[in-house]
Amino acid sequence: MRFSQFFQLNLEQPYLDFLDIPLDTDVAAFIDPTGLKQLDSEFGHIAQSLMQTFFDKVLQEIANNNLSNAISLLSHLSESNEFHLGLSKGKARGHGIGAHNAHKLGLAISQSKASQSGLLQDLEDTCLVIEGIGSDMISDAICNIIRGPLIEYTQEMCNLHNIPLTPNIKSGPIWDGDKWTQYFTSLPMTSDGKAILVPKIIIRHNISYSSSEYYRHYLLEDMQRDEISRATTLVHYLKDGSPRVTKTDLLNKYGKDKKAIEAQTINHRSALENYKRDKGNTLTHALDHEDISEITKTPKLEWSKVQQEFSLISTGRSTAHDYENLIERTLTALFYPCLNHPKREKSIHNGRKRIDIEYTNSAKNGFFSWLAQHYPAAKIFIECKNYDDDLSNPEVDQLSGRFSPSRGKFGIIVYRKCKNAHLLDLRCKDTANDQRGYIVTLSDDEIIELIKERESANPYSFPLLKRKFDALID
Predict the structure, then answer these.
(1) N or C: which terminus of the chain carries fewer CB neighbours within 10 A?
(2) pTM of the complete model
(3) Distance (Å, rounded) from C-alpha 55 to C-alpha 74?
(4) pLDDT in tens, 375-394
(5) Within-domain flag for 397
């Protein structure tokens, strides 16, 4: 049984911002620290800070010869099953460091020449040079380090979908940037215990760092150049006289395990620096709907069903909530992974104003990425109007009043139909000309057009949105 089934959400995975976890096992997926560092959002920034402060603290304690303190810090990265991520084939059990491995890892880091020389700077570096540390352990450790933000995210998703929260549940260890703490909080309780949800935008098939990739494509290549420059016995000469050192010969001489990788990294520091730089500069893309369907073993998204739903809801105040629900789940699927973290009825200005739906703009390419590069668009605001009649100035002014330079100055009004679409476009253009923000309107038919665009070879370009935006600024 999945989380959504337990709470009878009647929503399939594409309509959910979080990973719809099975309650009795794990999803074969991971949180990638590199991907988290590339997430330019409030959640991403907090997660990045927590990861860095934690490992800095561990290294600081080791540098000060406080090994017991370092081990204590590491021991809180417990083998937790609330997240349901990893490689378990049976019951979810987590792959965290835990008390037993904390002592071994603390000793390994303290005795590591890479650590002593200052080469280890991030938690994920350990999986390159320390035996026994793999992608599942790194991912589970990060889950625990960012448990605080994940709990807040879980509570927000539960509020969004009217999922009951049970009060006075132990949070588990929370890293606050300086120390571990714990408190009682509210969490969803399932038949398998408490659950902590993970945004699907931070899920990957694996973490970016790979010791074999690092060794073969970075470190060994540095070693080849070094052997040639020193004209060692490993150098062979081709018929044309050019020198050559094979990677096989290097592996046979220096070894293949992580001890060998660490030893050679000390002698070739630039290899690790280049590897980390290239990883940081290479975007790790979020899993798409098809990828997530595959790893969660859930049905694939059928866009035709989405289109059909618009004809099932009539206009008018009595069905306004149903229409807003339809828009939220449709746009969550349609704009993923560009937009994420939906919030309903978001209050601003001390509760004096409310936004129907708010998304965080996390786009790495396509229309929303372009928008964020040229205009304030950290948040994207959606207003839903299930009217029988045409929209007028008050509806446009209502949305523009929600804008600010920090939140964003772009929004979308979704509506059913319009007799005078040209007049509505002029009202939005007036708002842009008055420097009160940029508003695009979308009818039912235009949302269906966007769905068809999504099925194209460039699913995130959304040409219709670009044309409408260009019309505002022409």
Answers:
(1) C
(2) 0.92
(3) 9
(4) 999 999 999 999 888 887 88
(5) yes
